[in-house]
Amino acid sequence: MVKINISYAILINIQLEKGAYIMVLQQNVIVGFIGTYTKNNSKGIYRINFDMNSGKILKSNIAYEIENPTYLSIDKVRHIIYSACKVGEKSGVSSFKYWQEEDKLHLINFNLSEEKPPCHVSISNNKQVLISSNYHENKMLVYNTLDGLILNSPMLGSHSGCSINLSRQEKPHIHCSMFTADEKYIVSIDLGIDKMIISTLEDNELIQKDDLSHSFPAGTGPRHITNLKTKPFYYVLSELTSEIFVFKYNSSSEIPFDNIQTLSSLPKDYKGKKCGGAVRIHKNNKFLYTSERGNNSLSLFLINQEDGKLTYINTFSSNGDSPRDFQLDPTGNFLLCANESSDNICIFSINQTTGVLTFINSETVPTPTCIEFI
After folding, report:
1. Which residues, including other chains, have CB under 8 Å from residue 204's CB and lie 6 or more apart?
2. What is the pLDDT along the chain (374 residues), one digit of tens a residue?
3. Which of 291, 333, 282 is nearest to 315 (CA)?
4. 3-state DSSP call for residue 269?
5. Predicted TM-score (pTM) of this structure
6. Residue 141, SS3 per DSSP
7. Cβ distance 222 to 177 under 8 Å?
8. Quick count: other Cβ atoms within 10 Å of Cβ 324?
9. Quick one: which of 342, 336, 330 has its CA closest to 370?
10. Cα-flanking dihedrals φ and ψ of residue 2, to 5°?
């Protein structure tokens, strides 16, 4: 009997006589899905097969044709992908079933109640609650789900106010929302009003906690948030000023998010346009990376394991135009950068001691905006 290690493997078809097929496992290849803007040549959600030995994309194909699936969130236990989307004249969220051995996604359902698509979706730790954030319509919609089915009658959160950048902050622009790690709060990052709004979800009612919310300096334009998995530290990246705000989280405090550090996500001598993109943390919880569309770069920071504060290390070219988002592969050996305006995903190896990035190759994917591995 032959033993096969199924870690990080996909199923491939091998044809036998008379048209029969068997499924054989191919080692060290993992499946990923790419969200896109469906302008230029993009048709929807793409699937890739990524070789975690070589750092190469072996195959890419359209997995489901749908308009503007710009952000994805994955339930790996139930094999479900949630996506922002537009269908006809309506927009909202959609859900799909995936199997490793199939190239295509299978639609579960849509939930469409918006005129313009949301820009961000996230799923709770228990995979039962889906949150979408709509930059254009000032809406945070919170949906209950049932095995991937997005249920009707979502809870609505909206903000009020504006800030000093009249072209970008004339009204609220909710860019990102997620549960805290303990799921006590929902944090909503609003670029338009320079705030991190805190809410609770109690008996299917969304309650905004203005006294717990955090205000950023006027004109900051906060965009995305992530957190350390081992310690209570959260990191917010701003779009308009390209800064990182480090917070210590204490769920029992009157001020649950304490801003303990603020620093630029760019080199000290940088004087050009600023346009922060994404922020993510390596699986070792030691490296933090950001993307910057102002100068098409990726920056590396070391995370202090005691106090959560950051030290800037270096900045690297994204080898493309407008790195809207990026993702780390499950091994932590590679970083894949989605360069939206140059239609390519650039792959970098990660030095496991220093976190330093080394460019490996580039693969064509039309208008990529989000990358998720299953």
Report:
1. 144, 155
2. 333 333 344 444 434 333 333 333 377 999 999 999 998 899 999 999 999 999 999 999 999 999 999 999 999 999 999 999 999 999 999 999 999 889 999 999 999 999 999 999 999 999 999 999 999 999 999 999 999 999 999 999 999 999 999 999 999 999 999 999 999 999 999 999 999 999 999 998 999 999 999 999 999 999 999 999 999 999 999 999 999 999 999 999 999 999 999 999 999 999 999 999 999 999 999 999 999 999 999 999 999 999 999 999 999 999 999 999 999 999 999 999 999 999 999 999 999 999 999 999 999 999 999 999 99
3. 291
4. coil
5. 0.93
6. strand
7. no
8. 23
9. 336
10. -95, 125
* Alpha carbon separation from 170 to 140, 158, 161, 162, 192 (Å, rounded): 18, 15, 8, 5, 7
346, β-bridge pairs: 337, 362
DSSP classification of residue 217 = P
| Single-letter residue type at 199 | S
The Cα–Cα gap between 247 and 341 comes to: 32
Distances (CA, A) of 344 to 36, 61, 129, 355: 11, 14, 32, 23
Work out whether the CA dihedral 74, 324, 235, 191 comes out positive or negative.
Answer: negative
* 242 neighbors 265 (Cβ within 8 angstroms): yes
CA separation for the pair 149, 239 (Å, rounded): 33
Q: Which two tokens stand for residue 86?
A: 């537009």
Residue 218: half-sphere exposure toward Cβ, Cα within 13 Å: 7
Beta-carbon contacts of 352 under 8 Å, excluding residues fewer than 6 positions away, are: 284, 332, 333
C-alpha distances (whole Å) from 73 to each of 36, 66, 370 are 13, 16, 9
Token match 């009249």: residue?
Answer: 166
Cα(228)–Cα(231) distance, rounded to whole angstroms? Answer: 6
